[in-house]
Specification:
Length: about 350
């Protein structure tokens, strides 16, 4: 074995039903006295009990998918004007992403309180969209100092969003098997993440209020994000970031659609990863395990269902090709990448 693995410094608190007190304790431990609370209107009911327990100087509600630069700019200005010394985000990946955008410039610590399975809270990756181009980067300043997971905050997450968000987390695991910096530790974490997600997601789909299923899924999503933060963004995420930014596609659903096609594309060229993924699913083959889970969950099927135009395939081909890491297991050509995108756009069956 010869590799270098970096473990990111972060406190993680699992506290079902106790997020107000847990967040207050994290804010105090970080020395925060002027909190900028970032939560959209949709998350108001979840954020209100937390707000009562912390010293809020500003509540910011403008949260937009893919974090447009102009939205990030307005959030930054309000944070500076209010004299905030700490950020608390309550919401999904877009909410966490906005907090990261503010932290990228200000260096303010973040306490992240996820209400989906996005996983952004456990990575040092930021993303901003300008026009139809989404730019991502890595900076330790955007890694939340603390994460508070409260399963009670996810009991009202709509079933369709639960499935898409959970499969987004699954995509973090799969991409971590062959990301540009993937190492044996990343693969071990990702394998356990797949197992946990494959166990938790059907339970949540069956009973969206069941705390045990939600906690198992949150656990899997956290492991997925930790592995992904270390392994780096592989072919799956490069495809989804380009398509999401270019065509304003919904983040989680895009990942859920693209995942089986990327797995089928890379698995024949990555036997160790394929074996690990299959074992995590309890299946003979990785693709069969994912397909069985997607059937149970009635997962999103086609990019065209979410507004991607068919002629967008040719438009996206160049930017995606440029972004894919050189060490991707399968050789990438215009022909096979076009075939992958066409299949994901149409929702074609996977052979």
């Amino acid at each position: 074995m010869k590799f270098t693995h970096a473990t990111l410094p972060q406190r993680v608190v699992f506290a079902a039903g106790e997020s107000p007190a847990a967040v207050a304790a994290e804010v105090e431990a970080l020395g925060g006295s002027k909190v900028m609370l970032i939560a959209s209107d949709r998350e108001k009911e979840l954020a209100d009990p937390i707000a009562k327990e912390i010293p809020v100087v500003l509540r910011h509600e403008e949260v937009v998918t893919h974090v447009p630069v102009e939205v990030a700019g307005r959030a930054l200005r309000t944070a500076v004007n209010a004299g905030a010394d700490i950020l608390v985000s309550v919401g999904g990946g877009s909410t966490t992403g906005l907090a990261k955008a503010v932290a990228l410039t200000t260096g303010l610590p973040i306490v992240a309180v996820p209400t989906t399975y996005a996983g952004s809270e456990a990575t040092n990756v930021w993303g901003l969209t300008e026009g139809d181009t989404k730019t991502t980067g890595v900076d330790d300043k955007v890694l939340p100092a603390s994460v508070v997971y409260d399963a009670g905050l996810l009991t009202s997450l709509p079933g369709e969003m639960t499935v898409a968000s959970g499969l987004n987390a699954m995509a973090h695991c799969v991409d971590s098997m062959w990301g540009p910096r993937a190492d044996p530790i990343d693969r071990a974490l990702a394998q356990e993440g797949i197992r946990a997600l494959a166990s938790g997601l059907p339970a949540v789909a069956d009973d969206s209020t069941g705390i045990e299923g939600i906690e198992q899924t949150l656990y899997g999503a956290y492991l997925a994000a930790v592995a992904f933060a270390s392994a780096g963004s592989g072919i799956h995420h490069k495809i989804c970031h380009v398509l999401g930014g270019m065509f304003n596609l919904p983040h989680a659903q895009t990942h859920a659609v693209v995942l089986p096609y990327v797995l089928a594309f890379n698995a024949p060229h990555a036997p160790e990863a394929e074996a690990r993924i299959a074992q995590a699913f309890g299946s003979g083959k990785a693709g069969a395990g994912l397909a069985a889970l997607r059937k149970v969950l009635d997962a999103p099927r086609a990019l065209r269902d979410y507004g991607m135009p068919e002629d967008g395939i040719a438009k996206a081909l160049g930017p995606i090709t440029k972004a894919i890491p050189d060490n991707n297991p399968a050789p990438v050509t215009d022909e096979n990448l076009t075939a992958l995108l066409k299949a994901a756009w149409a929702g074609d069956p996977i052979n």
